[in-house]
Amino acid sequence: MKKELKKIVTMTAALVLTCGCIVSGLRRTPELSFAEGSNTEQTEKVTGDINGDGAVNAADILKMLQYLYGVSELDENETLIADGNSDSEIDVADFILLKNKITDPDALSPDDPFYGALAAPDLKNIRRESGVDAMDYMNFSAASAEAVLVDSEDENGAENPVYSPLSYYMALSMTAECAAGNTRDEIVKALGSEDIEKLRESNEALFRCVNFEYDAANCILSNSLWLNNKYDFKQDTLNLLAKDYYAVSFAKDFGNKQTANEISDWISKNTKGKLNPEIKIDDPELDVMKILNTVTFKAPWDEAFKSSGKEVFHKRDGSEVACDFLKEQTNGAVGSGDNYKVFCKSYDYGFRMNFVLPDEGVDINDIISDSDKLAAIYTGDYEAEEYEVDFSMPQFEVSSKFDLKGSAQKLGISDAFNSGKADFSSLTDNEKSGAYIDAITQEAVLKTDKDGSEGAAYTIVEIKASASPMPLPNK
């Protein structure tokens, strides 16, 4: 006999979208050498013009995607032309180079002596064969929740704050790549990784798995670095960030007011207009760089809710408010943990939302502050039973803005904020600049209604110098 659970009402202070999809592959390793004695004529290699029509355009994108998905094959010359980075594999990196060649024909390759771009801000439907080991990221999400949602002040004054641990994780990961010595070690440890190599693997795997874009749904991660052209930067590190983090780099005049507008526009574009901040450059001489991640998400429920109109919602402080409620009756698994219950509702395309109901008399912040409980919720590590569920929740739209500097320090990052100890020599000359983290900021928005959810976030890490730069030599 099935049990019945009446009205699971969510009082979540945070949304965490966990990727539950196993994704199909997009990496093929062709034979690039010609057979001995082959009479095949080798044409001149023009990177990108796969179909040989004299232009690099959408037709070449389509031909590469058909190959990556196994729909069609490439001949020997087409394979040589498609292998943009000459690594004997046709994979996501070649797709990025091809897409950049079309969308930004003036962009230079990562091997050019310029602080230039490799990564496109969106990888469209690039997925891999195997599942993703995301435990480092999940552990960071659980560990950072209290520091952000409970201990940090929401500058928007929201009762129901929202933040993106994924955006925070990726921005700090890129910051770790720019650091060295104990500064790097502290950041890597705070992110839950054994070493920088494992951190790279985790970021690349998450990036390749999570990114998708269809007409009705998307989840797009974008990374960028904005570099003050008064300083000298190390090309090898920029190349690594492009390759492993799909990060595009821009060398700009920080004394030009238009640069701040360009950064703001980049955030707006890559969050599909959901966030439109006014980024500022406080000191064109001492602001070294800004490290940016954006996340934007949209997905419909696999089964839409029914709208039930206005009902009374009971808030944490005991007061009541009238809200538009969403309802459904379904059969599903309800998880039970220590002082809480969990119900998950799936979106299309493999994502889900976790709804957490604290037991009577338990504050949601007590659950958020327990990283073990959160980790269990994120990973589904709890006892679950099938119920006939009468599910009811208010639709909502929330936004938050956090100064994450304090939360990063609570996670164990210390030296990076101290101009006398910080070491960012992996990217710039630390002895000359004395570079350190001046600020970390995140803004996030989330809307959920009967049809699905839309959300976006950006995280910006601002690196400042303690000494003005020496004039760069003429190059």
What is the topological layout?
Blueprint: E1 3-8, E2 17-19, H1 58-68, H2 76-82, H3 92-103, H4 135-150, H5 165-178, H6 181-190, H7 196-210, E3 212-213, E4 218-228, H8 235-245, E5 247-252, H9 257-270, E6 287-300, E7 306-314, E8 320-337, E9 340-346, E10 351-358, H10 364-368, H11 371-379, E11 383-394, E12 396-403, H12 405-410, H13 430-433, E13 436-448, E14 452-464
Parallel strand pairs: 1-11, 4-5
Antiparallel strand pairs: 2-10, 3-4, 4-6, 6-14, 7-8, 8-9, 8-11, 9-10, 12-13, 13-14
Helix pairs in contact: 1-3, 4-11, 5-6, 5-7
Key descriptive features of the protein:
7-stranded mixed β-sheet, Type 1 dockerin domain, 475 residues, 14 strands, Antithrombin, Chain I, domain 2, 2 domains, alpha+beta
Number of DSSP strands? 14
Integer tally of domains: 2
| pLDDT < 50 stretches | 1-44, 105-131
Q: What's the end-to-end separation, in Å? A: 79 Å
CATH superfamily caption of the largest domain: Antithrombin, subunit I, domain 2
Quickly name the level 1 CATH class of the largest domain.
Alpha Beta
Helix and strand pattern? EEHHHHHHHEEHEHEEEEEHHEEHHEE
Largest sheet: 7 strands, mixed
**Overall pLDDT:** 80
CATH fold-level name of the largest domain? Antithrombin, Chain I, domain 2
Helix proportion of residues, in percent?
A: 25-40%
Strand content: 25-35%
Overall geometric form? globular
Determine the number of helices (DSSP H or I, runs of at least 4 residues): 13
CATH architecture field of the largest domain? 2-Layer Sandwich
Radius of gyration: 24 Å
Estimated structural class: alpha+beta
